[in-house]
Design goal:
About 35% of the residues lie in helices and about 25% in strands. With about 450 residues, the chain is an alpha+beta fold. The strands form six sheets. It has a six-stranded antiparallel β-barrel. It starts with 5 loop residues before the first strand and ends with a helix.
């Protein structure tokens, strides 16, 4: 059995950042990782490019946190997005900002991010224990429950006064994220908020998306809503940007962001997605645009008149939904029929069947109840020396580097706080030893 000051469970973004924060303060740190190498999930983020963080201001950073944003106040300010950028650049990783303030490595390689983190760990003496899985967190169950180490799947025990759970969530289980952190939290008496796949594509009712499979649309607007008892819409989310049709439904930045808002609603209500293909044009202006196109080619068929307005694969779907004949000459199209066309272009409705599964989810919505975690330190309010960081917590954000920022900030807070506890304990012991030595020296003087 080998003793450490701190054991970190998980060699992902939060885990390695926690290890660096603690290791740089002179603590003996061991990262226990079930995979054969670190950062397997980092490797696939941002389509292999790794959107490290977002270079926005703090107000926007908080606005993009969807769940428990107040909980993130202390850790975001303790280790900001500017601090993250400075950390990686100091570790020799050049960075760049792209559209929407998204920050990527100049190399566009997530492997470079993993290498920078791994080397930072090695510089401060952090040890990795790969192919290992923590089954139990060991605690002294006295008046105050205190961590004393972990037990691995094979029965081996590792002694440590501080344990940081950064085992990730349930998204992309192929990377080793199978919910281990939630099991450990439950074992230690913590509440875990129901976990759902988030930032995930959507399955759509009907065959229309499959007919447009592969069609990517930019500068469109989508709204997501349910209907009240009186038939009126109750909007859940609305965003402008990019989306794409697939064989099963819809995906893309707008859709992924919306999934974090509608996942829990889908369990009990029908949710609809409404696509505005021309958000820059009012219905009146769009009607005039269509009329001009018709007047310039009065004898062309309806279906062949829309090529300048809509993508080719979308035209038959729009005509079908609007109930219009594509063979009709445009000079025979009535104003009522043009109005139907405008209504569909400005509001194509798709009933959402379900969200896609864990294999396609970027993050997990839900996790360890943050009411049981100190937001300033990430330490459990129930067990001294136990910390939670990263995706295992019930905190999630939209796409754009915000979820990784949550991982960096909570990991750093947990690592630094655990190190402070270790150092305080060592100083206390040293002081007590000195006091005891002084007492013994005084006793010897009196006895002589």
């Amino acid at each position: 059995m080998k003793d450490y000051d701190i054991v970190v469970i998980g060699a992902g973004a939060a885990g390695m950042m926690a290890a660096v924060a603690a290791g740089r303060r002179g603590c003996r740190v061991c990262i226990v990782e079930r995979n054969e190498k670190p950062g397997k999930k980092i490797y696939i983020t941002g389509k292999g490019r790794c959107n490290i963080t977002n270079a926005c201001d703090m107000d926007e950073l908080f606005q993009n946190v969807m769940t428990n944003r107040k909980f993130m106040y202390s850790s975001f300010y303790r280790f900001t997005n500017e601090d993250v950028i400075a950390f990686f650049e100091k570790e020799g990783l050049p960075l760049k900002s792209e559209r929407g303030n998204r920050v990527f490595p100049v190399s566009d390689k997530s492997s470079d991010v993993i290498r920078a983190l791994s080397e930072a760990c090695q510089k401060c003496g952090v040890e990795f224990l790969f192919h290992s899985r923590v089954k139990t967190i060991l605690c002294d169950r006295d008046a105050i429950q205190t961590v004393k180490g972990v037990r691995l799947a094979g029965g081996r025990e590792i002694t440590a006064s501080q344990v940081i759970v950064a085992a990730g969530g349930s998204s992309y289980p192929s990377t080793g994220s199978e919910g281990d952190g939630y099991l450990l939290a439950t074992q230690t008496g913590h509440n875990v908020i129901r976990c759902l796949p988030s930032l995930v594509p959507m399955n759509i009712v009907g065959e229309e998306p499959a007919q447009m499979q592969g069609l990517s649309m930019k500068n469109v607007e989508m709204s997501f809503y349910t209907r009240k008892a009186d038939g009126k819409k109750k909007e859940l989310y609305r965003e402008f940007g990019e989306m794409m049709f697939t064989h099963f439904g819809i995906t893309g930045p707008i859709v992924l962001s919306a999934s974090s808002r509608i996942g829990s609603v889908l369990a009990s209500e029908q949710v609809y997605a409404e696509l505005d293909c021309k958000p820059a044009l009012s219905k009146e202006k769009l009607h005039k645009r269509i009329l001009r196109d018709f007047e310039s080619n009065p004898n062309v068929s309806f279906k062949n008149s829309l090529g300048g307005l809509l993508p080719r694969s979308m035209i038959p779907v729009v005509l079908k939904i609007s109930g219009l004949s594509g063979e009709k000459a445009v000079n025979q199209v009535t104003r009522e029929e043009r109005n139907k066309l405008v209504d569909v272009i400005k509001g194509m409705v798709f009933p959402i069947e379900s969200l896609r599964g864990w294999n396609e989810a970027i993050i997990t919505k839900g996790g360890v109840d943050v009411r049981e975690v100190n937001p300033a330190t990430m330490e459990s309010k129930q067990i001294q020396g136990l910390y939670f960081a990263g995706e295992v917590l019930d905190v999630d954000a939209l796409t754009g580097g915000f979820n990784l920022q949550i991982a960096w900030s909570t990991g750093y807070a947990a690592g630094e706080s655990a190190a402070e506890r270790v150092l305080d304990t060592k100083w206390d012991k040293l002081r007590k030893n000195e006091e005891e030595q002084d007492r013994m020296e005084r006793d010897n003087e009196y006895s002589n």
